[in-house]
Amino acid sequence: MNKKRVLAMLLAGAMALSMTACGGNSASTDGSSNDGGASASGGSYKGSVILKTLAAEYWQYVKSGAEDYASEHSGKVTVEVKGPSSETAFDEMQNMIETDLSSGSYDGVIISPLQSDTAAQLVSGTKLPIVAIDTNFTAPEVKSFVGTGNEAAAKKGGEAAVEAAKAAGWTDIKCIEIAGVQGDQTNTARMNGYKAGVEEVQYADATADRATTAMEAIMQTHPEGIAIICANNDDMAMAAARAAQGHDAYKNTIFLGFNGDRAACEAILAGQMTMSVAQMAYEMGYKAVETMVQVLDGETVDEFVDSGSDVVTPDNAQERLGTLKTQLH
Q: Is this prediction's pTM over 0.90?
């Protein structure tokens, strides 16, 4: 694939961008959903925040943002943040959603689903307002989606990776993606953004160990080297870069991650990874709770609230690292 074709396909991907929203613009809730929440008597809303896991740094930033909004509005809302042990612990997440929807303890629930279709089924018929975070899912109960425009963000990273590959001396610019969990809506959106430069896909279930195995397979099938390796998250990109160390054909390969977490910034500064598409995870958690409160207050909310993105490179990684250090509890 020549570079003109890659760039043309990247542009086409941008034009085809679709940010699918769910739910309606109405922020009204059924009266019975707020029995335990804020009222004319001055009570406080209580929200459940169910994330994909708390076992990764990225989700700790989301957690910090959600808790900081609640802390800054302590008379208005409190939140409980939880998540399963991993991003493949599907039964754990299902139990969390079912328990919190039926407990009567919450006025609203914020969910980052591991399986979008399952989440839609689980919330069906609930009177509690639902806010989707990080990963969208389609259900009338979902009042807003707060997250990254993943397809546009991945395209932004893909464009930056192409320019970096050209600067590194590559003339045959090919890209292989090490993907996350197959069927995950966020993974699919990122794949669509990356796809202009993707020659093939290796699924790695969003884990570093699987990414290492995938990278070893890539080096065996492509001993000539590949210009760009893009991954669905930073852990996988860093694992792939480590696996390629010492392989001469991959010494100038661009390793592109996604999330822009502290470890990624440090790896970029140390020359152990090239770049990362940064999600604004803290802002995502903060805005999700803010949006839930607005829904409960009867305000009209946007169907999609973009928490933002950026591309972290050696030029801005130190600044990004400083910001992250102020956000993590």
A: no
Q: What tens digit of pLDDT does each residue of 115-171 get? A: 999 999 999 999 999 999 999 999 999 999 999 988 889 988 999 999 999 999 999
- With residue 310 as reference, give the H or E element that holds it: strand 309-312
The two tokens of residue 66 are: 């959600």
The Cα–Cα gap between 268 and 271 comes to 5
Give the β-pairing of 309-312 and 275-279: antiparallel
Beta-ladder partners of 199: none
Residue labelled with tokens 């493949």: 88
What tens digit of pLDDT does each residue of 20-34 get? 333 333 333 333 334
Query: Closest Cα to residue 27, out of 146, 124, 143?
Result: 143
DSSP secondary structure string, 317-328? HHHHHHHHHHH-
C-beta of residue 208 within 8 angstroms of C-beta of residue 238: yes
Task: Give the chain's radius of gyration (CA, Å).
Answer: 20
Question: Cα(50)–Cα(83) distance, rounded to whole angstroms?
Answer: 5
DSSP secondary structure letter of residue 226: -
Cβ atoms of 310 and 260 within 8 Å: the answer is: yes
Q: Which amino acid is at 200?
A: E
The residues, any chain, with a CB within 8 Å of residue 72's CB and separated by 6 or more, are: none
Query: Which of helix, strand or coil describes residue 44?
Result: coil
